[in-house]
């Protein structure tokens, strides 16, 4: 008999896979000139950011669902602004790629995400250049090269946009880890949108004003309120679904679900968008790259488990010293430092490399907010 807890876990995973795939396919359909024909990726991204900022404002300031964090001008200028800038760039480049290359090929290129994150982490000094991870990155890169070589409708411009977006997102993730954790600031999905979405909107306004606004002719634009509202709502729902899945299962599970989602998405895209034909070389290359991604996830998960084990040992030693000093027995000292409460949020460290299609969901921003 399957327990209720397990059923809810599977339900959350199903919701995550459905929303993640749906948002990507929906964006492609809206942007593609062959379908809805709204070839303005920066405009679409600004709609998402504006909607997310509005919802976050209502939840925090009006409904008071969560409390805002203690945000100073220094933290905002040195943390939120640079993170928002790279987040805006990753969305801009990533969504623009839909105009040039297929969804299936985009998913194959996204296998480079661990490579980009690892390289950025090494350059920023948050990770060390290890032989096992480096060989892993070479395997992933080799698989992506094979997949690219087998792409029928290979487009240099679209590929450059997508790869640039991947590296911008990787740098954002590393900056999130370095800057926010250094300041001791923790944001949940709602507060992260509250601070980051408006700033990203402002950064997106600059390329929109220079690149898209001059060519916009109102009479030729197809604007359907319900299409854009539902599209933005799906993106927002994806953000919260990732938070729920990670909170219930952990980062390793959502990574495995992400691999499953990628295969489903590639298969669905070839059905929904017939021009997204894939070749045997595409599949072979992507399979090789995924082997590297799975191995990378395994190695990083081992690192996290090792750090947790050492952390638990240090806490246990500290508790023992405290019990000896204050005359406490083992049970009373452990109740304050160890157990579930003592380790809350430890699984979130591995989230920093998880790829999220549209909204800055939970990568390193998933801890509880501090009340103001």
Tags for this model:
single chain, 372 residues, mainly alpha, globular, disordered C terminus
Describe this structure in words.
- Helix content is 73%, strand content 0%.
- The longest helix has 47 residues, at 280-326.
- The protein contains 13 helices and no strands.
- The protein is globular and about 60 Å long.
- It has helices at residues 4-31, 41-62, 73-96, 103-109, 113-124, 131-149, 156-183, 189-212, 225-249, 251-272, 280-326, 330-337, 339-342.
- The termini are far apart.
- Helix 1 (4-31) packs antiparallel against helix 9 and helix 4 (103-109) packs antiparallel against helix 10.
- With 372 residues, it is mostly helical.
Output the number of helix runs: 13
Could you give the count of β-strands?
Answer: 0
* Estimated radius of gyration: 22 Å
- Give the SSE order as H and E letters: HHHHHHHHHHHHH
Characterize the main sheet: none
Helix content bin? over 70%
Strand content: under 5%
What's a concise summary of this model?
The protein is mainly alpha-helical and 372 residues long.
């Amino acid at each position: 008999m399957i327990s209720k807890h397990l059923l809810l876990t599977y339900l959350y995973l199903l919701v995550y896979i459905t929303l993640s795939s749906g948002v990507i396919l929906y964006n492609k359909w809206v942007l593609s000139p062959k379908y809805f024909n709204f070839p303005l990726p920066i405009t679409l991204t600004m709609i998402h950011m504006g909607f997310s900022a509005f919802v976050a404002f209502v939840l925090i300031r009006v409904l008071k669902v969560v409390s805002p964090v203690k945000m100073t001008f220094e933290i905002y200028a040195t943390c939120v602004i640079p993170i928002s800038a790279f987040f805006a760039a990753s969305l801009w480049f990533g969504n623009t790629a839909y105009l040039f290359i297929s969804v299936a090929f985009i998913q194959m290129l996204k296998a480079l995400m661990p490579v980009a994150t690892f390289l950025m982490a090494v350059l920023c000094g948050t990770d060390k250049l290890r032989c096992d991870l480096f060989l892993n990155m070479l395997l992933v890169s080799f698989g992506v090269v094979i997949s690219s070589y087998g792409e029928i409708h290979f487009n240099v411009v679209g590929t450059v946009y997508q790869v640039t977006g991947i590296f911008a997102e990787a740098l954002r993730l590393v900056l999130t880890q370095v800057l926010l954790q250094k300041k001791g600031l923790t944001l949940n999905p709602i507060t992260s949108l509250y601070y980051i979405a408006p700033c990203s909107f402002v950064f997106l306004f600059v390329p929109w004003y220079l690149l898209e606004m001059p060519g916009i002719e109102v009479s030729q634009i197809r604007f359907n309120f319900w299409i854009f509202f539902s599209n933005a709502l799906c993106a927002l729902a994806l953000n919260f679904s990732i938070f729920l899945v990670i909170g219930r299962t952990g980062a390793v599970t959502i990574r495995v679900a992400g691999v499953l989602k990628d295969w489903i998405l590639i298969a669905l895209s070839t059905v929904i968008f017939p021009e997204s034909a894939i070749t045997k070389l595409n599949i072979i290359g992507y399979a090789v790259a995924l082997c590297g991604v799975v191995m990378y996830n395994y190695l990083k998960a081992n690192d996290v488990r090792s750090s947790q084990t050492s952390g638990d040992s240090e806490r246990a030693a500290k508790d023992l010293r405290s019990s000896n000093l204050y005359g406490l027995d083992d049970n009373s000292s452990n109740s304050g430092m160890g157990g579930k409460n003592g380790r809350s949020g430890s699984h979130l460290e591995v989230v920093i490399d998880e790829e999220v299609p549209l909204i800055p969901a939970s990568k390193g921003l998933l801890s509880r907010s501090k009340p103001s």
